[in-house]
Structure formats: structure tokens, C-alpha cells
Amino acid sequence: MKKIIFLDRDGVINVDTGYAYKIEDFQFEKNVAEGLGKLQKKGFEFIIVTNQSGIGRGYYSEDDYQKFNDHVVAQLKKNGIQILKSYYSPFHPEGIGKYKKASRCRKPEPGMLEHAEKDFHIDNSRSWIIGDKWADVKCGKNFGIKSILVKTGKGGKSDEKHKTDVAYIAEDLLDTAKFITHQSTS
Predict the structure, then answer these.
(1) Do the domain assignments include residue 37?
(2) Nearest partner of 129 among 90, 173, 71, judged by Cα
(3) What number of CA atoms fall less than 13 Å from residue 165's CA on the CB side?
(4) 3-state secondary structure the chain
(5) Domain for residue 108, yes or no?
(6) Is residue 115 part of a domain?
(7) Does residue 10 carry a catalytic annotation?
(8) Residue 50 maps to which CATH number?
(9) Is 8 designated active site?
């Protein structure tokens, strides 16, 4: 069974520039490769789960999202980090066209994690979700896994209506990795 770290993307892996989709705007958040590398050495594998309401609002296309996400995954790979798969939700209740809807795949709902569970043999008791928004960590709670809020990106300041208990509030992914590896050895 796989030990999975579910990662929000914007604000956790890459700097959240506000509806990030332009490759020229890409830059890593601090300590990403070092933190993920430490977790990867401990046997964790990574899945990206990201709300992309910018698609639903018409700010960019699914193709734009895919090109940017492929770039993020390629930059991680250059740093020795492997991503199993990326899941995204383009839906938003205030979206346009086919994207205007509430969806079980939009965090804090656990739909993306449920899809991953069907695709991979996941050990939920040893898996985590890491996000910079309360909706990210509440998604983990709704799915029954442990959650960590990181202070990078939004740092929990944008969506307090979803505030919930977390295992830890971390400075960045390196701090997260230290916490998780300490938990798994104690």
C-alpha cells in the first residue's frame, strides 16, 4: 500500500500569483525540493490535488492549466521529485458554462482524493494532505487522513470558514517533512 502525500499546488509547491497558469510566472515556494526529497526518501509518494476555479471563471483554459501543471511536474522531476498523478477541479458555483456547479471534486469536498483512492492502493492511515488553505486541510479531514497547513501561499488567511483542526501548522514543506518524518518514527 502506498503512503501518499496529497499536495495542493498553488501556494504549496509554486508561488501563488493569483490564478497561476503562465509558465513565465512559475517559481517554487521555499524549501520545496528539500522538503519533498526528505519525504520521498522515507517512502512517501506524491499526488497533486488542486482547485482550479480560474478555469471555471474563464480566466484560462484547461489546456493552459495542463501546460502549467506539466511544467511544475517537470521542474519537480529535475529536482528528483516524482509526482504519481495530478487531479484538478475546474468547477465553481460562480463559474461559467459547464463549470458552473458545486462539485464533490472541489475541496473541501474529498472527491479528488476518492478518485486517487480508486486509481492507487493507498494506505490512508499513513497518508497526509498538505495545503495553504483551510479548504485543503478540511478536505483531508473529510477523507479521513491527517492534515497540515503550511504558512506559505495563503497560509490559512483566505478561507477561515473552513477552519478545522490540523495535525500541525508548518512554516513550509521542509518544516512539514521534519514533522511527518518525526511522527512516523515515534
Answers:
(1) yes
(2) 173
(3) 4
(4) CEEEEEECCECCCECCCCCCCCHHHCCECCCHHHHHHHHHHCCEEEEEEEECHHHHCCCCCHHHHHHHHHHHHHHHHHCCCCEEEEEEECCECCCCHHHECCCCCCCCCCHHHHHHHHHCCECHHHCEEEECCHHHHHHHHHHCCEEEEECCCCCCCCCHHHCCCCCEEECCHHHHHHHHHHHHHC
(5) yes
(6) yes
(7) yes
(8) 3.40.50.1000
(9) yes
CA distance 113 to 107: 10
C-alpha cell at 93: 458555483
Q: Which residue has the cell 489546456?
A: 63
Q: What is the mean pLDDT of residues 61-88?
A: 98
Residue 20 is assigned to a structural domain of this protein: yes
If phi over 0 gives left and psi between -120 and 50 gives alpha, with beta otherwise, what is residue 49? beta
Among candidate residues 8, 136, 172, 175, the one labeled active-site is 8
Q: What angle do CA 5, 155, 185 make, to 5 degrees?
A: 35
**What pLDDT, on a 0 to 100 scale, did the predictor assign at position 34?**
98
Residue 184 has pLDDT above 80, yes or no: no
**Quick one: pLDDT at residue 161?**
79
Domain count, the chain: 1
Parent domain of 98 = 3-125+141-148+168-185
Q: Tens digit of pLDDT for each residue in 105-116?
A: 999 999 999 999
